[in-house]
Backbone:
């Protein structure tokens, strides 16, 4: 029986086959992506560098000698490799467990292909069992909390120690339980319209094109 950590290593390495030589690679955030970054370091001489979705991934890429480009200076990317908190059978995802959802969505939008890497515990029928992360402007948090309550959501402000967690963008994260997201595209569009929402952690408009799922039988490739 493989551990979850071993499954993450497996899919992190498997993602290398989507990296185009000479290209700039879009790099996500999280423990699964950290395995990909380690694997990517083995071919750093064959890529131009990376665009990163978080300060944490940038630091990790730099430490391994991989050049990191500023996203604002790059037109588009061939591929974006990132993990997920949940992924369904259409490639729709919940992301943001690592609080990096806004930059992740930006880099995903820059990319022609989104390759999601995940262990098989992340595959779900319907999104929503994982508490949905939503990055918000702090002054709007109370109102947004009431808006979620009106649709059955229970909100908690993500903390770091005794203080609210502050994202790379200087904002807060609300984690919302009690939702069953049966229409990810419609849900994402609707919540994005709420004043003060920076990014909702449903990735439906920026869904995965491919998922490399780590299973006890090896890597299962799902294309959407
Ligand atoms: C970070 C994310 C991550 O991709 C997600 O939380 C999965 O992380 P991990 O690979 O550690 O399970 O969205 O904001």
Residues:
């Amino acid at each position: 029986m493989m551990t979850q950590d071993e499954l993450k290593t497996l899919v992190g390495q498997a993602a290398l086959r989507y990296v185009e030589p000479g290209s700039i690679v879009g790099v996500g955030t999280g423990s699964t992506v950290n395995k990909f970054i380690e694997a990517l370091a083995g071919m750093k001489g064959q890529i131009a560098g990376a665009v990163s979705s978080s300060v944490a991934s940038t630091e990790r890429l730099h430490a391994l000698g991989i050049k990191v480009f500023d996203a604002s200076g790059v037109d588009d990317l061939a591929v974006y490799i990132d993990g997920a908190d949940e992924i369904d059978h259409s490639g729709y995802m919940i992301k943001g467990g690592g609080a990096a959802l806004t930059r992740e969505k930006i880099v995903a939008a820059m990319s022609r292909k989104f390759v999601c890497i995940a262990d098989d515990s992340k595959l779900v029928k319907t999104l929503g069992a994982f508490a949905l992360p939503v990055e918000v402007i702090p002054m709007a948090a109370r109102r947004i909390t009431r808006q979620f309550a009106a649709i059955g959501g229970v909100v908690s402000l993500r903390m770091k120690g005794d203080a609210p967690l502050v994202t790379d963008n200087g904002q807060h994260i609300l984690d919302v339980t009690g939702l069953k997201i049966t229409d990810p595209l419609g849900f994402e569009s609707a919540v994005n319209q709420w004043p003060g929402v920076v990014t909702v952690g449903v990735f439906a408009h920026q869904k995965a094109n491919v998922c490399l799922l780590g299973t006890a039988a090896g890597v299962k490739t799902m294309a959407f």
Notes: The chain is about 25% helix and 30% strand.
